[in-house]
Write a structure and sequence with these properties.
The complex is a heterodimer of chains A (about 110) and B (about 110).
Chain A lengths: L3 E4 L2 E4 L5 E7 L5 E7 L6 E8 L2 E4 L6 E4 L5 E6 L8 E8 L7 E2 L3 E5 L1
Chain B lengths: L3 E3 L4 E4 L4 E7 L6 E7 L5 E7 L4 E3 L2 E6 L4 E6 L8 E9 L4 E4 L3 E6 L1
Parallel strand pairs in B: 2-11
Antiparallel strand pairs in B: 1-3, 3-8, 4-5, 4-9, 6-7, 7-8, 9-10, 9-11
Classes of the chains: A mainly beta (about 110), B mainly beta (about 110).
Chain lengths: ~110, ~110
C-alpha cells in the first residue's frame, strides 16, 4: 500500500517549456487535489477533482490544467512554464471531501 | 486579514518542555479543524483533528474556541523528534475548501 505517489520528485524547466506532474493513489479515494506550497504561505489549492472524469478550479488555477481520466490518477499540466510557478507541488487525496487529506511526497519545480 | 493565521515562530524549546501554539481563523462558519505536521522537505501529515470538546492524543492536546475563533495545540514533554512545522487547517464548508495556515516552526533542542 503505497498511499499517494508523485513523479517526478524534482524538475528544472526553462521558461515556456511544458510538463506534466503525475499523482497516483491506491486508497480508492474519490477526491484528489493539487496544491502548491511557497515559502511563508500556506498550501494553496490549484485544482481538485471529486471523481473520475471531473475537475474543478481551486484558488490559484491560472497557468495549470488537470485531468482525471482514471480514479487513481490525477495529472497536473503546465503548458508554458513561468518563473512564478517555481514551487513545491503536493498532490493529496481524501475519502470524504475537504476532510482528512493524505499527501504525496511532493514535486520540487524550478523554472528558470 | 488572512483566513488562517499562525505565529511563524520559530519556537525554540528544550527537551521536556511544554509548548503551545495558537491559530486564529476568520470564517465563523468553519466546521472542521485539524493540525498537520510537516517535517523539513516532506509532505504534511495529519497530526490530529480538533473536536469541539477538545481532544488528547498522548502528549498532544488540541482545543477549539469557537467564540474567539481560535484553535490551539499543546505539546507536553517535548521530544527532539517533535521538531517540525505545525500547520493549522480549517475546513470552510460554505466555500468547499480547506484553508492551510503558513505553519509554526518548532525546534526542540537537547
Amino acid at each position: 500500500n503505497a498511499g499517494v505517489t508523485q513523479t517526478p520528485k524534482f524538475r528544472v524547466l526553462k521558461t515556456g517549456q511544458s510538463m506534466t506532474l503525475l499523482c497516483a493513489q491506491d486508497m480508492n479515494h474519490e477526491y484528489m487535489y493539487w496544491y502548491r506550497q511557497d515559502p511563508g504561505m500556506g498550501l494553496r489549492l490549484i485544482h481538485y477533482s471529486v471523481g473520475e472524469g471531473t475537475t474543478a478550479k481551486g484558488e490559484v488555477p491560472d497557468g495549470y490544467n488537470v485531468s482525471r481520466l482514471k480514479k487513481q490518477n490525477f495529472l497536473l499540466g503546465l503548458e508554458s512554464a513561468a518563473p512564478s510557478q517555481t514551487s513545491v507541488y503536493f498532490c493529496a487525496s481524501s475519502y470524504r471531501p475537504w476532510e482528512t487529506q493524505y499527501f504525496g511526497p511532493g514535486t520540487r519545480l524550478l523554472v528558470l | 486579514r488572512k483566513e488562517v493565521e499562525q505565529d511563524p515562530g520559530p519556537f525554540n524549546v528544550p527537551e521536556g518542555a511544554t509548548v503551545a501554539f495558537n491559530c486564529t481563523y476568520s470564517n465563523s462558519a468553519s466546521q472542521s479543524f485539524f493540525w498537520y505536521r510537516q517535517d523539513c522537505r516532506k509532505e504534511p501529515k495529519l497530526l490530529m483533528s480538533v473536536y469541539s470538546s477538545g481532544n488528547e492524543d498522548g502528549r498532544f492536546t488540541a482545543q477549539l474556541n469557537r467564540a474567539s475563533q481560535y484553535i490551539s495545540l499543546l505539546i507536553r514533554d517535548s521530544k527532539l523528534s517533535d521538531s517540525a512545522t505545525y500547520l493549522c487547517v480549517v475546513n470552510e464548508r460554505d466555500g468547499n475548501k480547506l484553508v492551510f495556515g503558513a505553519g509554526t516552526i518548532l525546534r526542540v533542542k537537547s
